[in-house]
Specification:
alpha+beta, globular, about 20% helix, Hypothetical Protein Aq_1857, Chain: A
């Protein structure tokens, strides 16, 4: 399962409303690259693909493709509005090593 903290849920819903895409979901994924080997991806998507894992968290739809789910199962997406270190943060128990910026990891 992929989880979102309350601040992350609030921020994603705010961004969806800002883009007038309230019916859409958040696609969470992983792609090759970054300083640690794999990078996290976030995007809005209108609907899930047939093979996606789909989660409903407080009325927010989360989509994740099967390959990414192998690396993200158990992860929590958090959000902080702190001025210098704010933004989305990935708390991933599957990551054996993460880069200092927190956007890439190795498993």
């Amino acid at each position: 399962m992929i989880k979102l903290s309350e601040p992350a849920i609030t921020e994603v819903k705010r961004l969806l409303a800002l883009e007038k895409k309230e019916d859409w979901g958040l696609r969470v994924g992983v792609e090759g690259g970054g300083c640690s080997g794999l990078s996290y991806t976030l995007a809005f998507d209108e609907k899930p693909k047939n093979t996606d894992s789909v989660f409903d968290i407080s009325g927010l739809k989360i989509y994740c493709d099967p390959k990414s789910y192998l690396f993200l199962n158990g992860m929590t997406l958090d959000f902080s509005a702190e001025l210098l270190v704010g933004g989305f943060k990935f708390v991933n128990p599957n990551a054996q090593k993460s880069c200092s910026c927190g956007t890439s990891f190795s498993a």
